[in-house]
Amino acid sequence: MFELLAQTSLNAIYAASYISLVAVGLVLIFGVMGVINFAHGELFMAGSYVVVALYADRMVPFFVAVAAGLIFVGLLGLLMERALFRPLRDNPLGGLVASIGFLMVLQALAVLGFGVRMEHIPPVTQDVIRFADKISIPVARVYVIVTAFVMLSALWYFLKRTRFGWALRASAQDPEAAALQGISVTQTAMIAMFIGAGFAGMAGALTAPLISINPHMGHSVIITAFIVIIVGGVGSLEGAVLASVVYAFVHTFVTTFFDGVLADITGLALMLIVLIVKPTGLFGSADRA
Amino acid sequence: MLLELRDISVNYGKISAIRNISIGVPEGQIVTIIGGNGAGKTTTLRAMSGMLPLQGGEIYFDGKRVDGMAPHKIVAHGIAHVPEGRRIFPDMTVEENLRTGAFLRKDKDKIEADLEDVFNRFPRLRERRRQRAQTMSGGEQQMLAIGRALMSDPRVLLMDEPSMGLAPVIVEEIAVIIEEINQRGLSVVLVEQNAVLALELANYAYVLETGNMALEGPASELHDNEHVRAAYLGL
């Protein structure tokens, strides 16, 4: 029993790490832009396809492909900011609808470029770290956990300790007051979009060798991310990370001990319970929601 | 004139908020704009810092035309705005709020010196430097908003209702602070509903009524003006 619990916990930590990357990006974009980015799952998908194109098809080293995924999808984020969200500033509903349109464009481009078949790409490494007879973790998953930890720490440092990090948080809390401090809200919007989209792309790129890739994979990603940011409290980065861990543990344990469908139901039920008991989420405050 | 508004008009949609307002702020002086609710005081101040587009007129700062510039560009010229309702960043610490005020500055040593200066001026901000700003009292938040504006090393400070919602004791404290800041050579534009306080502090005063300039003159003269006494001082 102990082995099973330990093994399931390791699986949950892996899930929590990439879900955090996606959810934190979504929260960052919502905070600074005031827009719920429905295309976030497709940004994850785009990151996966960067790895398909570079690592699987062109033998580019895996981590170079992951970095390319971060940058390419970050640039997609900048494109969204410039083409969609900037003209629709002060119109959050318009931004939301535009992001739905953009997700369809990305899906169509993925179908055009790669077809609708599932992509399975060669594993980066077959190595497995064994802790005990029945407790082990594939090194490929360790890569995801370590990278997520490093990137989330870097983001935390950026937001709490640097001038531009303060500017980003200031714009999220009060854009007009931020402008009065000399902060260009357009500039902070671009930074938030690059980081938010880039993190989703990196999560997709990192997990690409471990999942099956197809143009419509973004759906489950965005649903998970929504549950997580609602549970964590919309607008709270710490909440998003904590809720990712909670969700990943609940989902992984229910999947292991019961089945996957029940796990999805439990995840949604978790969101409903939080909405009933504490509508602002675990870390959210009323004035920010 | 350090800051000069020439005949400015501002509309909200089709509704005219202020019409043909001209205001001059000489270097080193305190100028106040008084008037009732909806007279256009805040609108005038927001136009100065670029938050509202002008329907007509021009704004000059130190000889340069600044109307039409984005708010974040105007700050760079040396105009700092302490907005109505303080508008501090609630989830950031006191120190982060203050350092954000110095966002545009590159002179690291001077920033540290100015931060020290703000902490000396407002000892309570030093005590609470690691505390989240939203946990502070209204008076402390007002001090933080003033401190944040000072951190941009401005030449003119625009203050919108700094006394609003504060206890009389704190209002007195804020008044002393405004005088001290001014004595250091900083020009101040003070928008106030508290006309007694405003006329006491200011060198020169403008009276706005429903978007029009009703009256202007040295603060001491307006203080003795019968209309002002009846309408704004309750005498």
UniProtKB/TrEMBL annotation, chain A:
It is found in: Cell membrane. Keywords: Amino-acid transport, Cell membrane, Membrane, Transmembrane, Transmembrane helix, Transport. The keyword Iron-sulfur does not apply. GO terms for biological process: amino acid transport. The chain crosses the membrane at residues 12-39, 59-80, 92-115, 135-159, 189-211, 223-250, 257-277. Pfam families: BPD_transp_2. InterPro entries: ABC_transp_permease, BCAA_transport_permease. One of its GO terms (cellular component) is plasma membrane. One of its GO terms (molecular function) is transmembrane transporter activity. It is a multi-pass membrane protein. Belongs to the binding-protein-dependent transport system permease family. LivHM subfamily. This is Branched-chain amino acid ABC transporter permease.
From TrEMBL, chain B:
One of its GO terms (molecular function) is branched-chain amino acid transmembrane transporter activity. Residues 3-235 form the ABC transporter domain. GO terms for biological process: L-amino acid transport. SUPFAM superfamilies: P-loop containing nucleoside triphosphate hydrolases. Pfam families: ABC_tran. Signal peptide: none annotated. Keywords: Amino-acid transport, ATP-binding, Nucleotide-binding, Transport. Belongs to the ABC transporter superfamily. PANTHER family: HIGH-AFFINITY BRANCHED-CHAIN AMINO ACID TRANSPORT ATP-BINDING PROTEIN LIVF. This is ABC transporter domain-containing protein. It comes from marine sediment metagenome.
